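Quick review question:
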C-alpha cells in the first residue's frame, strides 16, 4: 500500500457498561488484524460514563432501560439477541440472560487510567476483562473486589489497585478526560478517534472499520475525514 502511514494512534472512547462498545472493540481489533502488518496501531481507552449519576447499588436493567428508552421486555429481548449475534461475529460472548443490573463505572475508569500509565497493553487487557466480567459473566464492575481481581489478571499490582480504589486517586484526571471528550461533541459511544482528527462512531462492522482505517492510513496528515 504505497504512501500509507505505518502507524495510527487510536483513542477508543467508551464505557464498561456499553454493549456496543464491546462489539465495536471486537470489530476494530479484527479490522486491525486484517490490515497488519502494513499498518500498526497504538490503542488507548478513554473514559465515558453512560450513567454518571448511577448510585452504588445500581439499578435493575429492565427498569433502567424502560425508564430511559420506554422499551418493553420484548423489545429489550430482541435488542439483546441482536447485540449477542453481533458480538458472536467478532468473538465476544454476551450472556444470553443479559446483564441483571446497570452499575456505576467511575472506579473502573479510574483503574483504566492508572493501567494506561503502567502500559497500554495492560490497559487493553484490563478493558477486555472488564467487558467480559460484566457482559459475559454478569459481574458487578463497581465491586472493588471484582476490580482488584481483574486488575491482577491484567498483570497489575493488586495492592496498588486496592490503594487507588480506597482513595480518590485519578478521579480528577478521569473527570478531566471525560469532559474533554464531551466538550468535543462526543455524547454517544463507542467513539473511535484516529490520529486526533478522524472519527468513527458506533459499533460498526469489521468491513467498515477496515475501509476507514485503510483510507485514513493513506491520507495526507492535513486531511480531516469522518467515517
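Suggested answer, residue by residue:
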Amino acid at each position: 500500500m504505497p504512501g500509507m502511514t505505518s502507524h495510527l494512534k487510536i483513542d477508543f472512547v467508551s464505557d464498561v457498561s456499553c454493549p456496543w462498545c464491546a462489539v465495536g472493540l471486537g470489530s476494530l481489533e479484527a479490522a486491525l488484524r486484517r490490515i497488519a502488518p502494513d499498518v500498526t496501531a497504538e490503542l488507548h481507552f478513554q473514559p465515558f460514563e453512560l450513567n454518571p449519576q448511577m448510585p452504588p447499588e445500581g439499578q435493575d436493567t429492565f427498569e433502567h432501560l424502560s425508564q430511559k428508552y420506554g422499551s418493553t421486555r420484548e423489545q429489550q429481548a430482541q435488542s439483546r439477541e441482536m447485540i449477542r449475534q453481533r458480538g458472536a461475529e467478532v468473538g465476544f460472548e454476551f450472556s444470553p440472560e443479559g446483564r441483571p443490573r446497570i452499575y456505576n463505572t467511575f472506579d473502573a475508569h479510574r483503574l483504566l487510567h492508572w493501567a494506561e500509565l503502567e502500559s497500554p497493553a495492560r490497559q487493553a487487557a484490563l478493558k477486555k476483562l472488564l467487558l467480559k466480567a460484566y457482559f459475559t459473566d454478569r459481574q458487578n464492575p463497581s465491586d472493588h473486589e471484582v476490580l482488584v481481581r481483574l486488575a491482577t489478571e491484567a498483570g497489575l499490582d493488586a495492592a496498588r489497585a486496592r490503594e487507588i480504589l480506597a482513595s480518590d486517586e485519578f478521579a480528577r484526571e478521569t473527570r478531566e478526560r471525560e469532559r474533554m471528550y464531551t466538550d468535543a461533541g462526543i455524547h454517544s459511544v463507542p467513539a473511535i478517534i484516529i490520529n486526533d482528527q478522524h472519527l468513527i462512531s458506533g459499533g460498526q462492522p469489521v468491513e467498515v472499520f477496515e475501509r476507514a482505517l485503510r483510507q485514513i492510513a493513506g491520507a495526507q496528515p492535513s486531511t480531516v475525514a469522518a467515517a
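Why it works: The first strand starts at residue 7 and ends at 14. The beta strands are 7-14, 40-47, 59-60, 101-102, 191-194, 198-201.
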